[in-house]
Amino acid sequence: MRRPRVFLASRLSGLLGAVSLLAACAAGVSRPPGGPIRVGLYAAPLSLDPHLENEFLTSCVLANAFDGLTALDEAMRVVPALAVSWDTPSPSTWRFRLRRGARFQDGTPVRAEDVVWSLGRARRHPKSAVSHYLADIVDVRTRGPEVVEVRTQASTSLLLNRLSFVAIVPEGSPEEILVPVGTGPYRFATSAARDELTLVRSDVYWGRRPREPLVRLLVVRDPARMREMLSSGALDFALNPAPDEADRMRSAACCRVLARTGVAVDMLQFRLDRAPFDDLRVRRAVSLALDRSALVERALKGWGEPASQLASAGTVGFSPALRAPVRDLAGARRLLAQAGHAGGLSVALEFREDRRAEEIRRQLAEAGIDLTLRPLPWGEVLSRMRSGATELYYGGLVADSGDAGDILDTAVHSPRPDAGLGFDNHSGFSSPEVDRLLLEARIAPTLFDRRDALQRAMEEVMAELPMVPLVVPYDLYVVRRNVVWTPRLDGRVLAADLVRGP
Hints:
The chain has 502 residues and is of the alpha+beta class.
């Protein structure tokens, strides 16, 4: 497999940075000095309410305006945010001391009551997509004007990580937040059109003042158009460009291409409550028909690695016992015949419109599985999955806290709306043993105990194959040469990290 000529940072080593692939920058089209940095996004955020969506891009955008009690730094280490410190009077009790002087972007101070109300909203809102982060919390209360106490049902080893994904909003915020008011380094200048969002540097931010006063977020759904805008100077930065377009940008003088190992896994997800994918033999046939190394080489242009499970290496819960299957076309055809599909089968594959699925279709056709490709706008893809209309889906799973429980609790746990579990379970998969192991992981007294329980849960899930892991794509970025920026371990792009150089 051809390796891209790029520095790849391991999550285990915590190394940062990436090496440019290109030669020195030649003159290109640029805007007058002082204009906003322009960031190209492959889709629009699904919501401006930080509690109602937990999709990666949406969370990435909203992280510019909102803070949690804690945060994860560029190496995914827990650091203080709105909580300046914390302690544990007992194994199931946490006390957080709030940061003095922190204010919402409307100027009002952050109070302990805002924190209690926000965590309650995130836990109990009927449409909350972040309630699973708080699934083991029993009670939240104030202990004075600057102290919040959180009680859990048992010692919870990952609470600090998970609180970083739960935004603090003003007490009494509406049922759906349409005009964000957070405490982050940037505020939204407008929320009328999510395809074009302007971030304005906050005058009341408690932390380090960002260098750039304005950042524009522009949705560019056509990968080729994204490349053209980067080349002309209409964009300064592209998040997750299509691999073939990133490959073409290797020779562009205007920009540099950055890549690093990521925390996402691309997969195929089946709908298990109806034929043909209610039969494990069919799901196993799909898995055996795929050549994952060829997917990396042809579909990702070398920007990735074969996947063996629903989390990438270095993620807590990744099981070393699992190996990516070796392609076996004869075995795939035999399993299809045993399941009553000796003549093959036909199915529609749905996916986000900027993705490419031709190589998946080609490989499965060799086993007698005929795919009709249906690229759709991202919001429509999610809506169809959530309604149960999607038979076969191609997409990605992101463990952006570095913990496989992010994926397993939401995407494979039996749905339990009361506990925020199984919120993104769109396959219909349900396993009492997997649920038991995930509970064991959530209440594990140490991170090592949690890791072991998650590994066993991952092995159980892979035996049943509600999803077939394909590849671990590298996080890709294209950056114009006058912009200074270093990739983060979690793949997020934050406006405060972008600096226009000379």
